[in-house]
Amino acid sequence: MPTTTVASSQPDEAVGGGQDDLDAVLRLLHIDPSRAPRDAVVLGDAVFCGWEAVGLARRQRHDLDGRRCFVAAYESGTEALFLVETATNEGDPTAFVYRTDAGVVEE
Questions:
Q1: Is residue 96, in this structure, part of any structural domain at all?
Q2: Does a structural domain hold residue 77?
Q3: Among 85, 91, 90, 80, which residue's Cα sits nearest to residue 31?
């Protein structure tokens, strides 16, 4: 049975984190930043709110604090990024990056 982890304040799970936190999660998820869109892997002025893994047989991780951080940024019109790892229909892991700025969310 898969385990469920709720975010704590360890460095790779930090809410309101910076580029180092995002880089650590990208490494953990084996995402090559050179093959991803720049806005998905470079924070710029955005805050990295966190990440979660859902629908994966090997890992489940729910980041409630990260979700709250992202929604708060959306509501206040500030920049933030939240990453969700999930599985394709075939079961392969894939990541979705949600970025918000000025009350708009992009995937």
A1: yes
A2: yes
A3: 85
- Total domains in the chain come to 1
The answer as to whether 5 is a domain residue is no
What single letter denotes the amino acid at residue 100?
A: T
Residues recorded for the chain: 107
pLDDT, one tens digit for every residue, the chain (107 residues)? 333 333 433 334 445 689 999 999 999 999 999 999 999 999 999 999 999 999 876 778 999 999 999 999 999 999 999 999 998 888 888 999 999 999 999 99
pTM exceeds 0.85 for this model: no
User: In which domain, by residue range, is 101 found?
Assistant: 14-106
Residue 57 tokens, joined? 């047989």
Question: Side chain identity at 15, as an amino acid letter?
Answer: V
